[in-house]
Amino acid sequence: MFFTIDGRGRHQQFAGPWIRMQTAAGANRSPRTASGVRLAGPRVVTCQRSSGRQPARRNQATKATSVSSDGAAGEVWNAVQMVQQIRVTCTHDCPDACSALVTVDDGIAVGIGADNSHPVTGRHLCAKVDRYLERVYDPARLTTPLRRVGKKGAGEFEPISWEQAVDEIGAQWTGIIDESGAEAILPFSYLGNMGVLSAFGPMFGLFNHLGASQLERGICGGQALAITAALGAMQVDPELVTETEMIVCWGIDVVSTSIHTWDLIREARKRGARLVVVDPYRSATARRADDHLAIRPGTDGALALGVAKVMIDEGLVDQAYIDDYTSGYEAFALSASDWPVDRVADVTGLSETQILAFARGYAQASPAVIRFGVGMQRAAGAGMAVRALQCLPALAGHWRHLGGGIANARTIPMTGREKMWGPGNPELGEPLTTRSFNMIQLGQALTDASLDPPIRALFVWNSNPAVITGDQNRVLAGLARTDLFTVVHDLFLTDTARYADIVLPAPSMIEHEDLVASWGFNYIGLNRAAIAPVGESKPNSEVARLLATRMNLDDPLFAMTDDELIRHCLSGSAAEAAGAGYDSLDQDGFVQVQHPGGEVPFAHGGFPGSVDGRFEFSSVLFDQAFGLGAIPRFIEPAESPESQPDLARRFPLRLLTLKRHFSINSSYGDLPVLRGAEPELRIELHPDDAAQRGVASGDRVDVFNERGRVSGMADVSTAVTPGVVVVPFGRWLDGGQGANALTSDRLGDLGGGPTFCDALVEIEAAGVPHQ
Ligand code: SF4
Fold it and tell me: Residue 500: which CATH number?
């Protein structure tokens, strides 16, 4: 008889034929690595493997946890190798933050699978991380520091030692600081690895102690974050979508970008919930929905206001909730009255019937929940659109009910990350000590000759700005500057790294320690190093320590190991207060943290951002601090036939840049096995638009505007709304141009967010000269 060890340390029956497992030394005590780091909890196990049967090299988690119930069984096997299973928490920029088990055989990772003890992510991983070990052991991994020997962008480098690399970086920075001041250095990073140490850790301390320029990081959901910070009220536990009668996925394709949200939605639908998707594209989620509202890009605010008007006109609002727990309703109702259904239909491209049905269904569901994504936050008026959308659950009184409202999780700020910031921490209310640049406007920052001092050094980690920032050709022009000293820390020679002077090898997520806070669910997890770093790769926390030493910085932060930093951050943090202290995480691998307001946080008001706890339909803060007006309103896209009719005569189609199923922004953009799913850049357009241009599926086409030109293969499809062209986001350039060659670096109305779905373009057969 054989058993698996489940996530709670219990044994379950299993028919595995060949592995005998035993818990690691001390059975209930986690082992430690040579550096003293405790490995994941009691579920770290070793086993003796039969010499006669080799395990598959992938997805071995279930088999590898097989255990014999017969203590004598081991005697009949020729056990020769030690196999361990280490719990990691996925550090990708994904809301789910999955707990996973990595099977390690003699120091080599041989399998990765879902950790079935995790209540949300335990069933499976996603299409990307199922193939993670191919990424870990990809022959294209960088294994040593590199120094550029060819032209910028040519990708010609020679290997150097870490000592040489650190010394050269230090020498360059010292010279630049002496001549121009530290603000001539710009750190650039995002959530390519969203571990708290990797994404918010000692690298910040390093640059802030140096006095470098700051980076504003609003590229994903800056609008929603700004509103949450100001008004709160987006905090229904996403796991509670199962308790609702209607789920609205607004601007998010959860099947491709949050697969475990999709699991919960499927569960809710089995119980009778309806799924409505608001998305200009018939995404994988939209294809499975009960209703798909294919609105024009950037018109979400108009739809939200139109829905509000239907609810108000037809008496579908919860007047008692409005009276007791909100303020400013009359002013909002007056503003919404400008949005009769025919006007909403005209602006959004939806039919009046669709809008009416959605509004009535939403109001009458008991309750409805909205899960919105970054898709709707990539237009000029996205901040106001989120504000308008935020009013809907207050109107309907959905906040009264379990699961009703707006689902969101914000565990990252609970982790004590601010302790690694260094001086001038805005999260602590301290004024910034140096100038700042929005990451979306990197091209401007690198090419603006009037800047004083100019940006003379760029350090990039956890990001690939050549691909993911707006106005790509301007970014590339900046990166090509011969007087710009660029360092890139990454796993692969990305499009950005090809322009670097020094490239530093980074570890994959199974090669370093970190603390991971989910932004899709209320969990915080530990990520333990399952294997030693591949080659000479080092985590950016270690890079920060090396560079801090080279730059003579002596903050105690730089003397801490990663494990000490994790303890330091968690000590006294909100996470610790919510049960996710170091010991709990060390013991269990992950901890669910609770919203302080409980499962129905706003049933009786108590909205954290308002003066009196009422939900503010009319916000003084938005009027005075943000200058956007107190009442939500629709802001037309910056580039649309309505806002720029002259431009639309030359570029009549609206651009929609889409996240993809087999990559995460630009991560995995090069992994051969996943790229095989999309061997060519696929440019989708509606049959009506294709017919007007004589384009057929399979034709080579160019999408272009005044900023750039992207080549690909046409895919004529009714999945695309008429008048819209879809270009996938995040694909590596390979010497060409990507979706962001077409986007601008214009910022949205709030939170420094991008406008990647707010651009006009035209499409033509490739090779046809543009007139
Ligand atoms: S990318 Fe997302 S869904 Fe995939 S394993 Fe990581 S956290 Fe889970």
Answer: 3.40.50.740
Cβ–ligand 1 distance for 120 under 6 Å, the answer no
User: Does 610 share its domain with 719?
Assistant: no
% of the chain beyond a pLDDT of 70: 86
With CA atoms as reference, report the closest residue to 123 among 100, 94, 93, 91.
Answer: 100
Task: Extract the tokens encoding 196.
Answer: 């708290």
CA within 13 Å, CB half, 126:
29
Q: Are residues 608 and 661 in the same domain?
A: no
Strand, coil or helix: what is 765?
A: strand
Instruction: Select from 562, 592, 624 the last residue of a domain.
Output: 624
Count of the separate structural domains present in the chain: 4
Q: Peptide bond before 17: cis, by omega within 30 degrees of 0? A: no
The whole domain housing 700 covers 645-765
In a domain, 736, yes or no: yes
The pair of three-digit structure tokens given for residue 164, joined into one six-digit string: 């040489």
Could you report the per-residue pLDDT of 624-652, keeping only the tens digit for each?
A: 888 889 999 999 999 999 999 999 999 99
Report how far apart, in Å, the C-alpha atoms of 585 and of each of 39, 89, 98, 113, 624 are.
11, 11, 14, 20, 42
Model confidence at 194, pLDDT cuts 50, 70, 90, reads very high
Q: From the CB of residue 43, how many other CB atoms can be counted at a distance below 10 Å?
A: 23
Q: Measured from the CB, is residue 509 less than 6 Å from ligand 1?
A: no
97 Cβ closer than 6 Å to some ligand 1 atom: yes
Asked which of 77, 107, 136 is the last residue of a domain, the reply is 136
Taking the alpha carbons of 296, 301, 468, 99 in that order, is the dihedral positive or negative? negative
Residue 231 pLDDT grade (very low, low, confident, very high; cuts 50, 70, 90): low
131 in the same domain as 259:
no
CB 680 within 8 A of CB 713: yes
Q: What is the structure's pLDDT at 450?
A: 96
Distance CA 728, CA 108 (A): 34
In what order do the strands lie in the sheet containing 291-293? 291-293, 274-278, 246-250, 368-372, 405-406
How far apart are the CA of 192 and the centre of ligand 1, in A? Answer: 12
Query: Running DSSP on this structure, what letter comes out for residue 238?
Result: G
326, 308 in Cβ contact below 8 A?
A: no
> 572 phi and psi, to 5 degrees?
80, 5
Tokens of 78: 């020729």
244 and 375 assigned to the same domain: yes
Percentage of the chain beyond pLDDT 90 is: 71
Q: Whose CA is nearest to atom 7 of ligand 1?
A: 97
Q: How far is the CA of 100 from the centre of ligand 1 (A)?
A: 9
